[in-house]
Design goal:
Strands 1-9-8-2-5-3-4 form a 7-stranded mixed β-sheet, with helices on both faces. A two-stranded antiparallel sheet has the order 6-7. It has one domain. The radius of gyration is 18 Å and the shape is globular. The longest helix has 27 residues. The chain is built from 9 helices and 9 strands. The protein has 245 residues and is an alpha/beta fold.
Amino acid sequence: MHSANQIAYENLKYAFPEKSENEIREITSKCWENLGIIGAEFDRVTKLKKEEIDDVIEIENKNYHILAKQISNSLIYVSAHIGNWELASRMLINLDPNTALIYRRAKNPLVENLIQKCRNRYTAKIIPKGEVAGFKDILKQLKSGGSLGLLVDQHLTSGVEIEFFGRKVKAPQAPAEFAIKYKLPIIMSRVVRMENGKYKSIFEPPIFIRENDDITSITKEIYAIYEKWIRQTPEQWFWMHRRWR
């Protein structure tokens, strides 16, 4: 097997020990299919006009977003590499234009240039994480009343240790840190592909910071929701990443 395919296969075996060999291989195959669709749709998604979004995505539980906005103009939006995450970013900017998308720079300069070029079609606010200048931009964004959009379902060596599918992982703690420091609600949503080929965006109830919350408790809450999402549509998550180490 190709190394990335082997990673996906092994991750699925660990996450779903109850599934048969044929089921695991079928999900692995469908993961690659989902990734191919995302790549094929990438250019079109970033060119979508604001008025076209509603024709592409059906939104479920939008009232949760409205509720969070009533509490705070600034929100911490959290999603994952599931379904079509680029379309999720596009939808988010449509709902809340004053949102900065936090992303990890691509190692390949050509890929990085493509990402910036395409995302700049629908937002001027994309901030690379893990850089001093980026961190300053994030603080500026929050202090000015803006929101942040993050994908934090991948491994981070310096992250907080929690359990994910019953195994220990290092999870990015940025959403919890920002939410606790600035007393901001966390709103989680994902855009999944339905059987008819159309998309549905599903919002979760907001996570409001409570008195005894800390970075670990909030991160655990985020990852519990991730696990629920993945169990519902395992073929649409990015299993090719070495999540458990």
